[in-house]
Write a structure and sequence with these properties.
Helix 11 links the parallel strand 10 and strand 11. It is globular and about 85 Å long. The protein folds into three domains: about 70 residues; about 110 residues, Aspartate Aminotransferase, domain 1; about 250 residues, Aspartate Aminotransferase, domain 2, CATH 3.40.640. The strands form five sheets. The chain has a seven-stranded mixed sheet, sandwiched between helices. It has about 450 residues and is of the alpha/beta class.
Length: about 450
């Protein structure tokens, strides 16, 4: 076929002026893909002629798509502070600058400056955590799921772990406690019923195979009505009386009391530490307000055994995580909670939120219809399930656009909103102060194009 003979040669095509300064290796690879697709289309009689300029444009488009970073900044106007899909807790910029300084320089990650010999990477964070929580020792792995697995594998392989049926949770990504236990080698011993578990259930379950009494935070649901569960303080006592390990998988552990009476059913890490537990684990990037990590605190003799588990090397964290986490813990120690964006958003007053929403409304009065409203939101991220907190929103309307269409337009401009009562809402609980002007620009540009 004559048209097949007209397909450009790869070695000549990649010398096109439009490709100057670009990666020759990648341009060659993409060119081969584009020309192969062209060949198939010719054979299938889908095209009748060849436009070389169009082929160049196609290669350039593919090049841009591949080399443009996929991760991008978004404005979270959903009101959900610990939004798993949007990256969970925000990091403080100053903390990140400190971490960058550490990461771009040689450092004492595993070097003891005092003794001039190899040190331990966990010492940097354990010192701060011991001072803050009163624990004997601490360890950090890459997330709380890793912490759960590592603890169970270390102490409960081929041994029984007693857990209430009401706490056999499944969190995002089909992560199930029973399956994690099975993978770790632990034997699950279910007690109680879905809605009720009593102290006697723990006591009656103990036998010669029992290694641990475990409590699991119900991260994404709550059991209401005719229900009861055993306080961890009582579990600690029973475990101690029977020479067993007690362990609380807190999921999203928070360090201090929360506003809006959120502590009612969810005690803080500092409260739990008063019971002198064997082990606790919790996430770094949820209500703690730091980087992704699984934090284990508790008895030194137990932490030492975990450190000897060969799996730890696969789950350990790097210097950037340790630097960021240490800085967050130090903010707690120094009571500089304004340096933790998650806590700052959670504690922002309704008066401040209303003032910001009103300010944006005034800026948009000639652009679209909007109204400042009282609303409610949730913290998110598997924390405080079914507990709503008050917030202030700005409802948006534009011409005859339906809410779902308007939400889509905002989303395509990296502004993530929510729909409430068939109205698009910008919830100011999660809108940063320096983002208000950005939102104004987005909306004005968007509605100008829509005219």
């Amino acid at each position: 076929m004559i048209l097949l003979k007209s397909i450009p040669k790869v070695d000549k095509f990649i010398t096109h002026k439009a490709f100057e300064g670009l990666s020759k290796t990648l341009i060659t690879k993409l060119t081969k893909e584009v020309l192969e697709n062209l060949r198939n289309n010719i054979l299938n009689e889908k095209i009748k002629n060849i436009d070389e300029n169009s082929l160049v444009d196609e290669v350039l488009q593919k090049y841009e798509e591949l080399t443009t970073p996929s991760l991008k900044n978004l404005i979270n106007a959903t009101g959900i502070i610990v939004h798993t899909n949007l990256g969970r807790s925000l990091l403080d910029k100053k903390s990140l600058e400190k971490a960058i300084s550490i990461a771009t320089s040689y450092n004492n990650l595993e070097y003891n400056l005092k003794e001039g010999k190899r040190g331990e990477r966990y010492e940097h964070i354990s010192k701060a955590l011991k001072a803050l929580t009163g624990c004997e020792d601490a360890l950090v792995v890459n997330n709380n799921a890793s912490a759960v697995f590592l603890i169970l594998n270390t102490f409960c392989k081929d041994k029984e772990v007693v857990v209430s049926r009401g706490e056999l949770v499944e969190i995002g990504g089909s992560f199930r406690v029973p399956e994690v236990m099975a993978q770790s080698g632990a034997i699950l011993k279910e007690i109680g019923t879905t809605n009720k578990t009593h102290l006697r259930d723990y006591e009656n379950a103990i036998n010669e195979k029992t290694s641990m009494l475990m409590k699991v935070h119900k991260s994404n649901y709550s059991i209401e009505g005719f229900s009861s569960e055993v306080d961890f303080e009582e579990i600690v006592k029973v475990a101690s009386d029977n020479n067993l390990i007690n362990y609380y998988d807190m999921g999203s552990g928070h360090m201090i009391d929360l506003p809006f009476n959120l502590n009612a059913n969810e005690p803080s890490i500092l409260q739990i530490m008063k019971y002198n537990p064997s082990l606790l684990s919790f996430s770094g990037d949820k209500l703690l307000g730091s980087v992704q990590a699984g934090i284990i605190i508790g008895k030194k003799e137990l932490i030492d055994k975990i450190k000897k588990n060969q799996l730890l090397r696969m789950l350990r964290v790097d210097k950037i995580t340790l630097a960021l986490l240490e800085d967050t813990i130090n903010s707690y120690l120094k009571n500089e909670l304004e340096n933790i964006p998650t806590l700052k958003m959670l504690h922002t007053t309704l008066e401040t939120l209303e003032e910001r929403a009103t300010n944006l409304k005034e800026r948009l009065k000639d652009t679209c219809n909007c109204e400042v409203i009282k609303t409610q939101t949730m913290i998110g991220g598997g924390t405080t399930p079914n507990k709503k907190i008050p917030s202030i929103g700005l409802s948006l309307e534009y011409k005859n656009y339906k809410a779902n269409k308007l939400e889509e337009l905002l989303r395509k401009n990296n502004l993530i909103s929510r729909i409430e009562n068939d109205r698009v809402i910008l919830d100011f609980r999660t809108i940063l102060e320096d983002e208000i002007e950005k939102i104004e620009i987005i909306l004005k540009n968007l509605f100008t194009k829509c005219n």
